[in-house]
Amino acid sequence: MTIFRVAIILFAIFPSLTAAAKADDLLIWSPAKVSDRSYKATMGFRLPAEWETSAGADLALTATKGGAPLPDSEQAMLWGRISKTSVTPAGQSQQGARVSVDTLRGSGALTLSRSRSWILSDSLDMQSSRSVSVRYDPVDAKQSSVTASQALKLIHPWTGTSLSASAGVSNASGDFSSTVAVNQAILPNLNLDASVSNPFSPDEAGSVNLRYRLQW
User: Fold this and answer.
1) pLDDT, tens digit, for every residue of 118-165?
2) CB 59 within 8 A of CB 12
3) Which end of the chain is more exposed for a tag (fewer CB within 10 A), N or C?
4) Do 97 and 108 share a domain, yes or no?
Protein backbone atom coordinates (compact mmCIF):
# COMPACT_ATOMS: atom_id res chain seq x y z
CA MET A 1 0.00 0.00 0.00
CA THR A 2 1.46 3.33 -1.01
CA ILE A 3 2.00 6.33 1.26
CA PHE A 4 -0.78 8.08 -0.66
CA ARG A 5 -3.36 5.39 0.13
CA VAL A 6 -2.30 5.17 3.77
CA ALA A 7 -2.65 8.94 4.14
CA ILE A 8 -6.11 8.92 2.54
CA ILE A 9 -7.26 6.22 5.00
CA LEU A 10 -5.88 8.18 7.95
CA PHE A 11 -7.55 11.38 6.79
CA ALA A 12 -10.84 9.46 6.62
CA ILE A 13 -10.58 7.75 10.03
CA PHE A 14 -9.02 10.28 12.37
CA PRO A 15 -11.64 13.08 12.16
CA SER A 16 -13.95 10.84 14.21
CA LEU A 17 -11.40 11.05 17.03
CA THR A 18 -11.24 14.84 17.08
CA ALA A 19 -13.94 15.15 19.74
CA ALA A 20 -12.04 12.79 22.03
CA ALA A 21 -8.86 14.75 21.45
CA LYS A 22 -10.56 17.95 22.61
CA ALA A 23 -12.03 16.16 25.61
CA ASP A 24 -8.89 14.75 27.19
CA ASP A 25 -6.19 16.67 25.30
CA LEU A 26 -4.10 13.51 25.00
CA LEU A 27 -4.57 12.91 21.28
CA ILE A 28 -2.79 15.10 18.74
CA TRP A 29 -4.66 15.42 15.44
CA SER A 30 -4.14 18.43 13.19
CA PRO A 31 -5.15 17.87 9.53
CA ALA A 32 -4.89 20.62 6.94
CA LYS A 33 -5.66 20.99 3.25
CA VAL A 34 -2.79 23.12 2.00
CA SER A 35 -4.17 23.47 -1.52
CA ASP A 36 -6.64 21.73 -3.83
CA ARG A 37 -4.38 18.66 -4.10
CA SER A 38 -2.00 19.06 -1.15
CA TYR A 39 -2.66 17.61 2.29
CA LYS A 40 -0.80 17.67 5.58
CA ALA A 41 -1.51 16.16 8.99
CA THR A 42 0.19 15.91 12.37
CA MET A 43 -0.97 13.04 14.56
CA GLY A 44 0.23 11.54 17.81
CA PHE A 45 -0.30 11.55 21.55
CA ARG A 46 0.92 13.34 24.67
CA LEU A 47 1.41 12.16 28.23
CA PRO A 48 1.08 14.91 30.86
CA ALA A 49 3.56 14.43 33.70
CA GLU A 50 6.48 16.22 35.34
CA TRP A 51 8.34 15.45 32.10
CA GLU A 52 5.72 16.02 29.39
CA THR A 53 6.17 13.43 26.66
CA SER A 54 4.69 13.44 23.17
CA ALA A 55 5.25 11.42 20.02
CA GLY A 56 3.69 11.14 16.62
CA ALA A 57 4.09 11.54 12.89
CA ASP A 58 3.85 14.27 10.25
CA LEU A 59 2.32 13.12 6.95
CA ALA A 60 2.05 15.19 3.80
CA LEU A 61 1.48 14.58 0.10
CA THR A 62 0.59 16.33 -3.15
CA ALA A 63 -1.34 14.58 -5.89
CA THR A 64 -1.85 15.19 -9.58
CA LYS A 65 -5.28 15.79 -11.10
CA GLY A 66 -5.50 12.05 -11.73
CA GLY A 67 -4.94 11.24 -8.05
CA ALA A 68 -1.38 9.94 -8.30
CA PRO A 69 1.17 11.35 -5.81
CA LEU A 70 3.75 13.71 -7.26
CA PRO A 71 7.33 12.40 -7.11
CA ASP A 72 9.21 13.45 -3.94
CA SER A 73 6.12 15.18 -2.55
CA GLU A 74 5.37 12.62 0.17
CA GLN A 75 6.45 13.25 3.74
CA ALA A 76 6.44 10.70 6.56
CA MET A 77 8.28 12.11 9.56
CA LEU A 78 8.29 10.37 12.94
CA TRP A 79 9.01 12.59 15.94
CA GLY A 80 9.17 12.52 19.72
CA ARG A 81 9.55 15.23 22.37
CA ILE A 82 10.17 15.34 26.10
CA SER A 83 10.25 18.54 28.14
CA LYS A 84 10.09 19.84 31.69
CA THR A 85 9.09 23.36 32.78
CA SER A 86 9.90 24.80 36.20
CA VAL A 87 8.25 28.01 37.39
CA THR A 88 9.29 30.11 40.39
CA PRO A 89 8.27 33.62 41.53
CA ALA A 90 11.53 34.96 40.06
CA GLY A 91 11.53 33.21 36.69
CA GLN A 92 10.98 30.15 34.56
CA SER A 93 13.20 27.45 33.07
CA GLN A 94 12.62 24.74 30.50
CA GLN A 95 14.69 21.84 29.28
CA GLY A 96 13.91 19.16 26.76
CA ALA A 97 14.88 16.93 23.89
CA ARG A 98 13.42 16.26 20.45
CA VAL A 99 14.13 13.50 17.95
CA SER A 100 12.85 13.25 14.38
CA VAL A 101 13.33 10.63 11.67
CA ASP A 102 12.46 11.03 7.99
CA THR A 103 11.32 7.50 7.12
CA LEU A 104 11.38 8.13 3.37
CA ARG A 105 14.83 9.68 3.03
CA GLY A 106 16.67 8.12 5.96
CA SER A 107 17.67 11.38 7.66
CA GLY A 108 17.23 12.19 11.34
CA ALA A 109 18.03 14.71 14.05
CA LEU A 110 18.37 14.86 17.82
CA THR A 111 18.18 18.25 19.58
CA LEU A 112 18.83 19.00 23.26
CA SER A 113 17.76 22.43 24.48
CA ARG A 114 17.59 24.50 27.65
CA SER A 115 16.08 27.96 28.21
CA ARG A 116 15.64 30.25 31.19
CA SER A 117 13.99 33.60 31.88
CA TRP A 118 14.30 35.59 35.10
CA ILE A 119 14.00 39.04 36.64
CA LEU A 120 17.38 40.73 36.52
CA SER A 121 16.40 43.97 38.26
CA ASP A 122 13.39 46.20 38.87
CA SER A 123 13.42 47.35 35.24
CA LEU A 124 15.17 44.55 33.34
CA ASP A 125 14.39 40.93 32.48
CA MET A 126 16.83 38.40 31.05
CA GLN A 127 16.32 35.38 28.80
CA SER A 128 18.92 32.77 27.84
CA SER A 129 18.76 29.69 25.62
CA ARG A 130 21.17 27.12 24.28
CA SER A 131 20.87 24.01 22.18
CA VAL A 132 22.91 21.21 20.63
CA SER A 133 21.67 19.43 17.54
CA VAL A 134 23.04 16.24 15.98
CA ARG A 135 21.91 15.55 12.43
CA TYR A 136 22.35 12.69 9.98
CA ASP A 137 21.60 12.92 6.27
CA PRO A 138 22.76 10.13 3.93
CA VAL A 139 22.60 12.49 0.92
CA ASP A 140 24.98 15.18 2.22
CA ALA A 141 28.72 14.97 1.66
CA LYS A 142 29.21 15.19 5.43
CA GLN A 143 26.48 12.85 6.55
CA SER A 144 26.75 13.66 10.27
CA SER A 145 26.89 17.15 11.73
CA VAL A 146 26.74 18.81 15.13
CA THR A 147 25.46 22.37 15.60
CA ALA A 148 25.59 24.32 18.86
CA SER A 149 23.91 27.68 19.50
CA GLN A 150 23.42 30.09 22.37
CA ALA A 151 21.41 33.29 22.76
CA LEU A 152 20.90 36.02 25.35
CA LYS A 153 18.17 38.67 25.44
CA LEU A 154 17.91 41.70 27.72
CA ILE A 155 14.37 43.10 27.99
CA HIS A 156 13.03 46.38 29.34
CA PRO A 157 9.36 45.43 29.87
CA TRP A 158 8.10 48.97 30.54
CA THR A 159 9.19 50.33 27.14
CA GLY A 160 9.01 47.13 25.08
CA THR A 161 12.71 47.37 24.14
CA SER A 162 14.95 44.32 23.90
CA LEU A 163 18.60 43.73 23.00
CA SER A 164 19.64 40.24 21.94
CA ALA A 165 22.81 38.46 20.89
CA SER A 166 23.13 34.94 19.48
CA ALA A 167 25.96 32.75 18.24
CA GLY A 168 26.25 29.34 16.62
CA VAL A 169 28.87 26.99 15.29
CA SER A 170 28.63 23.86 13.12
CA ASN A 171 31.26 21.22 12.51
CA ALA A 172 29.84 20.59 9.02
CA SER A 173 31.17 23.88 7.65
CA GLY A 174 33.35 24.99 10.54
CA ASP A 175 31.73 28.43 10.33
CA PHE A 176 30.95 30.58 13.35
CA SER A 177 27.94 32.88 13.03
CA SER A 178 26.66 35.60 15.33
CA THR A 179 23.84 38.14 15.36
CA VAL A 180 23.11 41.25 17.41
CA ALA A 181 19.58 42.66 17.27
CA VAL A 182 17.39 45.37 18.79
CA ASN A 183 13.60 45.15 18.94
CA GLN A 184 11.26 48.03 19.82
CA ALA A 185 7.52 47.68 20.33
CA ILE A 186 5.92 50.81 18.86
CA LEU A 187 2.26 49.80 19.11
CA PRO A 188 0.61 46.61 20.43
CA ASN A 189 0.86 45.01 16.97
CA LEU A 190 3.70 47.08 15.46
CA ASN A 191 7.38 46.23 16.02
CA LEU A 192 10.63 47.68 14.72
CA ASP A 193 13.58 45.27 14.34
CA ALA A 194 17.21 46.06 13.53
CA SER A 195 19.89 43.38 13.35
CA VAL A 196 23.51 42.88 12.31
CA SER A 197 24.80 39.45 11.31
CA ASN A 198 28.45 38.50 11.78
CA PRO A 199 29.54 41.94 13.03
CA PHE A 200 33.21 42.96 12.56
CA SER A 201 33.73 40.34 9.84
CA PRO A 202 33.89 40.46 6.00
CA ASP A 203 30.44 38.83 5.89
CA GLU A 204 28.80 41.53 8.00
CA ALA A 205 25.23 42.30 6.96
CA GLY A 206 22.46 44.39 8.50
CA SER A 207 18.72 44.71 8.17
CA VAL A 208 15.86 46.87 9.46
CA ASN A 209 12.29 45.62 9.46
CA LEU A 210 8.95 47.13 10.45
CA ARG A 211 6.45 44.39 11.24
CA TYR A 212 2.71 44.72 11.75
CA ARG A 213 0.67 41.76 12.97
CA LEU A 214 -3.06 41.55 12.31
CA GLN A 215 -5.28 38.82 13.74
CA TRP A 216 -8.88 38.17 12.87
Assistant:
1) 999 989 999 999 999 999 988 877 788 999 999 999 999 899 899 999
2) no
3) C
4) yes
Strand, helix or coil for residue 157: coil
Report how far residue 61's alpha carbon sits from residue 148's, in angstroms, rounded to the nearest whole number. 32
* 153 shares a domain with 59: no
Question: 204 in a domain, yes or no?
Answer: yes
Q: Which of 39, 66, 88 is the last residue of a domain?
A: 88
Burial readout 4-36 (b: 16 or more C-beta within 10 A, e: otherwise): beebeebeeebeeeeeebeeeeebbbebeeeee
CB 180 within 8 A of CB 194: no
